[in-house]
Amino acid sequence: MFHPSREQAREFFFEVWRKHQAQMPRTPLEDQAIGIVERHPEYHRVLADRARFIDHEWTPDQGETNPFLHLSLHLAVHEQLGIDQPPGLRAAWQALLAEGMDAHDAEHRVIDALAETIWDSQRSGLPPDGAAYLRRVRGDQT
Question: pTM for this structure?
């Protein structure tokens, strides 16, 4: 899943949840996704109702978070931490843990920083700024 369509990304999570509920074997990526989904019980009803939510639109003005985007960002952060990309991300995340933040909250901090970095990149038309991303993760205001 290097560049999945919106539907493919959603199908991945629907299928992961179906396999989990049926206690079917899963791939390592699916196991990682289930670990994330289990920490988000607010999305279980969505993943259990493919027909209703496969084409559902979540927009910021509705005050709801798109569960598929959120879960996908968690997977992206797991990948980035696994390969320490951008360099220093893993150390910044470990510093959050050392400060007493639990792993899930630290992931959310990184997700927020990633989303803001992507937003800036889209607005500017420039590649994502890894240094700005790390500053956001660390909570640096400069």
Answer: 0.88
